[in-house]
Amino acid sequence: MAKVFCIANQKGGVGKTTTAVNLAAGLSLAKQRVLLVDLDPQGNATMGCGIDKRNLKHTVYQVLVGLASVTESTVAADGFDVLPANRELAGAEVEMVEFEAREIKLREALAEVDDQYDFILIDCPPALSLLTLNALCCANGVVIPMQCEYYALEGLSDLVNTIKQVCKNLNPNLTIIGLLRVMFDPRMTLAQQVSEQLEKHFGSKVFSTIIPRNVRLAEAPSYGVPGVLFDKTSKGAKAYLKFANEMVARVGLPVAA
Length: 257
Ligand code: ADP
Ligand code: MG
Prior knowledge:
Blueprint: E1 3-7, H1 16-29, E2 34-38, H2 44-48, H3 60-64, H4 70-73, E3 75-76, E4 81-83, H5 89-96, H6 105-110, E5 119-123, H7 130-138, E6 141-147, H8 156-169, E7 175-184, H9 189-202, E8 206-212, H10 215-219, H11 227-230, H12 235-251
Parallel strand pairs: 1-5, 1-6, 2-4, 2-5, 6-7, 7-8
Antiparallel strand pairs: 3-4
The site of magnesium ion has 4 residues, from helix 1.
């Protein structure tokens, strides 16, 4: 049985995609079978894994509206599989409004490949939308990347409340696996302060690994390669590999199918 995690935060530009792509690559380096689901119409995770989002027969859009299976829509990346996305996905939200049980379409579709992967990671869009709800409904847990800045905590309560609601009404298995501090700049006093505040409020829910701001991580997507593979010696790559190990330690390895 695959363990399913979504990388969520309704803010844009907070490091969700970078975390999803590098965690997928990091887990695959640890010999885990990984499927990365791109659930953002921007298709950044797709492109960041070296898959051209403009030339795809099937994407997660077709899967959600019932026109294709996960297996026939999946593309191989370097060491792991990707269920890609492009701008077509923006239409899914509107079309799915008419569907019955529209919040569990992704869950139903992923059940088909459950025994083929150890980990399924879902890169969420920057909104608490029907797409994000679909991700939350199939996940065992949520990883929340956060920048340690003044507005970081704002909006977090909305996300936490949404997770609580989903847990109560739709997916009792859902938990917050942890908050991940990303794009961290230790020279900024404010970053230090917010980081301490997070630890104080959320305790062990805060991952001990901190992802530094690192230009190699930002450069990697333009080469279509995850940062952990692009420059293994960079501080960013090392941090994401450490995080992948911390994730495994925190959630355990899936039971072999
Ligand atoms: P989101 O998916 O939440 O919108 P992204 O992962 O796309 O966020 O990150 C936003 C931008 O910040 C991207 O240009 C990305 O390359 C860059 N970025 C993300 N993490 C880091 C980091 N640790 N160091 C430097 N740049 C980063
Ligand atoms: Mg993104």
